[in-house]
Write a structure and sequence with these properties.
With 289 residues, the chain is α/β, with parallel strands linked by helices. It has one domain: Aldolase class I (TIM Barrel, Alpha-Beta Barrel), CATH 3.20.20.70. The protein is built from 10 helices and 12 strands. The strands form 2 sheets. Strands 1-12-11-8-7-6-5-2 form an 8-stranded parallel β-sheet. The protein is globular and about 50 Å long. The protein starts with a strand and ends in a 14-residue tail after the last helix. The relative contact order is 0.16.
Length: 289
Amino acid sequence: MSVPLLNASGCLDAVSAPEVARGLDAFVTKTITPLARDGNPPVRIAETAHGLLNSIGLQGPGIDGFVRDVLPRLRELGVSLWVSVGGFSAADFARVCERLEQEEGIDTIELNLSCPNVDEAPETAAELVAAARGATSKPLYAKLSPAQWDVATSARAVAAAGADGLSLVNTIRGLALDEHTLQPRLARGAGGYSGPALKPIALAAVWACASAVDLPIVGMGGVQSGQDALELVAAGATAVALGTVLFGDPGAPARIRAELIEAARALGLAGPAAAHRSSVAKSDENTCK
């Protein structure tokens, strides 16, 4: 059973750990914004009993610094390269996508439409996708938030606006309090929650969107094992991204790939399509080329 494996944006630094990135079918960058950002003040990461809270705040070099200093090194990885794009307006998304359109070696652009750690753009997700679509011919994947009851409606809207695929799901807003002071453990208060507890939410979103649109889906959220990855595929994902697990287990790509094959064999599944529920089976033709 062959299912493309990626990293979730922000969960792997390929420049510092290229051998881990080469174990994936595609590497996804941290979110790149038009201008350089320092991100949110510390404390920015807090562990909880069942996951991880982060409030990094889209720290990064900006599009100019990324193209000049980072992109040349990422091209050396030898794996498919996805660039995560963010901003605070439709013009921001268009600006970054227009610059990336001019660069070789970028296979896909993932639009971060749902970061819980920064102020949101005033436009709808569909309007942001439309702005990006007007600025680039590269494949666009829309990364949607799980913090909405009807994520399928958003999936239909971004598909109509020109998205070529979906990334499901981003982190969900959460809060942790210090047990002694009863004050937030993150400087910003709430942050993006990831880890094992996110898996049922991710499964529900993938299931709903796979029923609603005929687009490839990168499923992510709480993947710790091959069984977790298999369940996302069964829900309708055509590829799987690893997130929080990479912080503690850099060997996770190889381990999860092997566990996925074994879990599929145990159920008598010969190929990826066999794991998808029949009504929403998708081709992964456009995923991780």
